[in-house]
Amino acid sequence: MRSKRELWVCLIIILLASITIYLASQFKDLPPILQRGLQPSTFPIICATIIIILAIQVWLRSNINPTNEHEMSFNHIVLKMMLIFLGFILLLYIDFFLAIALTTLAIHILWSKKTRLSSVILLGAVLPIFIYLLFGILLDVKFPSGIINYLQ
After folding, report:
1. How far apart are CA 94 and CA 107, in angstroms?
2. How confident is the model at residue 48, as a pLDDT?
3. Which residue of 100, 102, 111, 141 sits 20 to 30 Å from the alpha carbon of 123, by its own alpha carbon?
4. Consecutive H or E run containing 42
């Protein structure tokens, strides 16, 4: 049986994603001379639409596999998410890639039931490298400067 809390969480996610879609649809279109592909609003709209679809799917499947053992309280989950978000914001002032690596590690350690050190280190190292290669080199996106950028 689905609880009211699960419904409210799903509705809040849908509301936030809908606000994102609305705000992204207000972006100005690029002039024809600058158009080489997608408009700036396309990526946020696609991501928010996927988030809405996944939220509905999680809510619909919530009663298929009820998890009573080792169930954390809602307040405990919110506290973990707030700590991870606060840590990410604080680490952004030190270095962008360090923030991504350590936040990935924190999420993996706090949310997984079985933590293998090798997979945690691999995930924490591979994700920032992949992001840098994809966005920094391939798409030529400029990242905020930090400790790692000064070493280059």
Report:
1. 19
2. 92
3. 141
4. helix 42-60
